[in-house]
């Protein structure tokens, strides 16, 4: 009976984002109980003003990307482009091979995502569920490595890839993803797996299963919310990564979008509409993904933040 | 039965090690190996293309006693951290308090306040570069419209770092979300008890909300401090460390030493000094934390 209920519980977990005890427990805030209409109104005014402050740079970005060079340099500035110069986008994006940069970024994304998904799930599983000598030591080292400034490992890692002939290839950007996928991802995935009932594993072992069976039959099917969180985080990290590409990629053929945009600035220092059009283009997919996966995204941050 | 059990344990161990292999190799190749190599490099005068010779602690000695660029970059970074960490934490806390009220359209507000955080840092720097433009930028035109004099923002020594601090405050979404999660897990029975005792909003805020939030504040403080000490992109893309080294962030100086001047040995020593500084700061915060961080029963699901 116990097994049935826990299985039901677990399949419920599959349909919903990562555990969110705080939400179900109490959304009751400190000041809700006795709020007067006036303070309500004030609250909304403050929230809306704040939102406008947050959104203003975006509006500025988009309006600048749709203006002609004569209108953009008018002072005081105008807010509505006239005419809307949509041609800025195709012109900016074809003046430099952004298509190739996109393909490069996309290729790196696919390789990194595959590596992170595969190896972080396996690593998290072994740290969450299996007993082997040295497990706690290795796990502490892994967590400790998150505190290390990247500057310390940056130089020797660069030297290593230089010796191995990895400069100007995507290898240095992809390889780390295939070795555990990063301490952060392992940590996040492990936290999630600890919430999956152990009875399910034991049932599989009773039937003569191995840890591989448990991983394949129990853990992977139930871990999709955590996988989505890790997938979104990883996708955004790779898309936004700037330091990695500037260190390892010097041949323009291999540039990623972020790197392409940075060099694009040097070429178009005064063509602000083009720069803003290119920036919005790089921003757009991230915003889209964020809106699609918003719920998972925020749960993921919450999950890691609280556990830290 | 016993043999069966030990067979089970052996199987678990073998599979466990096999599954841990990628992570263990990753730790060796991308963390432990580089740390060791970095330390060895820091004791040499190695420049790419040149001979490597062992010079002991000379790099460290030079950095700490003669290198004025080092002290400038340390000053810049500390200045930036002292400005952006308290400002960011306070702003994030206030936003989290507001978002913790029962308001309509909460998820829309939450999304809006989070949105700046996901902007790719390179697009972010482009955008702010344009907003900071002294002649046609958004900020000066806003100042102008209310009759205030404009500023040269990142193009003037005295306003460069304050400008970057302002820019950093735009992207505090992560901190807000973590504060929000913290606020939502403050036990309601405490508030109820305070109400029974006739406590008002201020009492509740200072005697319940703040104390219950100290672990979250602590976490965010440590994370933001570590983050700001490693700032790099703004200096690289926006200011190139200028004007007159006013935005020469530490990691930017380190990057320049390693990858432009190819002084690998010297740059490695710089990296270790950064590591040391961050560690000392973290230990300091941890050691004072006993006085102000309260853990309720020491457990949280």
TrEMBL record, chain A:
InterPro entries: MetI-like, MetI-like_sf. The keyword Transport applies. Residues 1-14 have a biased composition (Polar residues). Residues 1-31 are annotated as: Disordered. It is a multi-pass membrane protein. It is found in: Cell membrane. It holds the Pfam family BPD_transp_1. Belongs to the binding-protein-dependent transport system permease family. PANTHER family: ABC TRANSPORTER PERMEASE PROTEIN MG189-RELATED, ABC TRANSPORTER PERMEASE PROTEIN MG189-RELATED-RELATED. This is Sugar ABC transporter ATP-binding protein.
From TrEMBL, chain B:
GO terms for cellular component: plasma membrane. CDD domains: TM_PBP2. The chain crosses the membrane at residues 79-99, 111-131, 160-183, 264-286. Pfam families: BPD_transp_1. GO terms for biological process: transmembrane transport. Keywords: Cell membrane, Membrane, Transmembrane, Transmembrane helix, Transport. It is a multi-pass membrane protein. Coiled coil: none annotated. It is found in: Cell membrane. The keyword Cell membrane applies. InterPro entries: ABC_transporter_permease, MetI-like, MetI-like_sf. Residues 74-285 form the ABC transmembrane type-1 domain. Belongs to the binding-protein-dependent transport system permease family. PANTHER family: ABC TRANSPORTER PERMEASE PROTEIN (PTHR30193), ABC TRANSPORTER PERMEASE PROTEIN YESP-RELATED (PTHR30193:SF1). This is ABC transporter permease. It comes from Paenibacillus kribbensis.
């Amino acid at each position: 009976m116990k097994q049935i209920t826990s299985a039901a519980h677990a399949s419920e977990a599959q349909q919903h984002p990562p555990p969110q005890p705080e939400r179900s427990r109490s959304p009751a805030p400190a000041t809700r109980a006795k709020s007067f209409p006036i303070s309500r109104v004030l609250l909304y005014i403050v929230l809306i003003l704040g939102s406008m402050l947050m959104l203003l740079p975006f509006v500025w970005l988009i309006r600048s990307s749709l203006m002609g060079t004569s209108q953009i340099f008018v002072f005081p500035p105008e807010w509505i482009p006239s005419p809307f110069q949509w041609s800025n986008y195709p012109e900016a994006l074809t003046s430099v091979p952004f298509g190739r940069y996109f393909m490069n970024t996309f290729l790196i994304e696919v390789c990194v995502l595959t590596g992170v998904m595969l190896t972080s799930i396996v690593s998290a599983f072994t740290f969450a569920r299996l007993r082997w000598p040295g497990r706690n030591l290795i796990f502490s080292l892994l967590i400790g490595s998150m505190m290390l400034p990247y500057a310390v490992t940056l130089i020797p890692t660069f030297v290593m890839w230089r010796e191995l002939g990895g400069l100007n290839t995507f290898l240095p950007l992809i390889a780390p993803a295939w070795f555990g996928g990063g301490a952060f991802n392992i940590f996040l995935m492990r936290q999630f797996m600890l919430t999956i009932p152990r009875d399910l594993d034991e049932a599989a072992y009773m039937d003569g299963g191995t840890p591989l069976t448990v991983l394949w039959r129990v853990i992977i099917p139930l871990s999709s919310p955590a996988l989505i969180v890790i997938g979104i985080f990883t996708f955004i990290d790779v898309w936004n990564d700037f330091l990695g590409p500037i260190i390892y990629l010097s041949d323009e053929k291999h540039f990623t979008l972020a790197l392409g945009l940075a060099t694009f600035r040097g070429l178009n220092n005064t063509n602000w509409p083009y720069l803003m059009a290119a920036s919005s283009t790089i921003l757009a997919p991230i915003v889209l993904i964020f809106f699609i996966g918003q719920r998972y995204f925020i749960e993921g941050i919450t999950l890691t933040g609280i556990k830290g | 039965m016993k043999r069966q059990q030990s067979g089970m344990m052996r199987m678990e161990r073998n599979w466990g090690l096999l599954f841990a292999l990628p992570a263990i190799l990753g730790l060796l190749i991308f963390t432990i190996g580089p740390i060791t190599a970095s330390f060895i490099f820091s004791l040499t005068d190695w420049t790419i293309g040149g001979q490597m010779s062992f010079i002991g602690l000379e790099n460290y000695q030079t950095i700490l006693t003669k290198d004025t660029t080092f002290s400038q970059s340390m000053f810049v970074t500390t200045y930036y951290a002292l400005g952006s960490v308290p400002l960011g934490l306070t702003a994030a806390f206030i936003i989290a308090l507001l978002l913790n009220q029962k308001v309509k359209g909460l998820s829309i507000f939450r999304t809006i306040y989070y949105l700046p955080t996901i902007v790719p840092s390179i697009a972010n720097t482009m955008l702010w570069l344009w907003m900071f433009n002294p002649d046609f930028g958004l900020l000066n035109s806003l100042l102008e419209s209310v009759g205030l004099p404009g500023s040269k923002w990142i193009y003037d020594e005295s306003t460069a770092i304050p400008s970057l601090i302002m820019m950093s405050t735009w992207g505090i979404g992560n901190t807000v979300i973590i504060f929000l999660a913290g606020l939502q897990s403050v036990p309601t029975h405490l508030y109820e008890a305070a109400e029974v005792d006739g406590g008002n909003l201020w009492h509740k805020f200072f005697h319940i909300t703040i104390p219950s939030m100290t672990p979250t504040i602590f976490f965010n403080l440590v994370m933001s401090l570590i983050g700001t000490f490693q700032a790099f992109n703004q200096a690289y893309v926006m200011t190139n460390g200028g004007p007159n080294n006013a935005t020469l962030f530490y990691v930017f100086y380190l990057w320049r030493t390693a990858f432009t001047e190819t002084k690998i040995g010297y740059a490695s020593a710089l990296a270790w000094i950064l590591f040391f500084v961050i560690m000392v700061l973290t230990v300091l915060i941890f050691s004072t934390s006993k006085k102000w961080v309260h853990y309720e029963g020491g457990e949280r699901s």
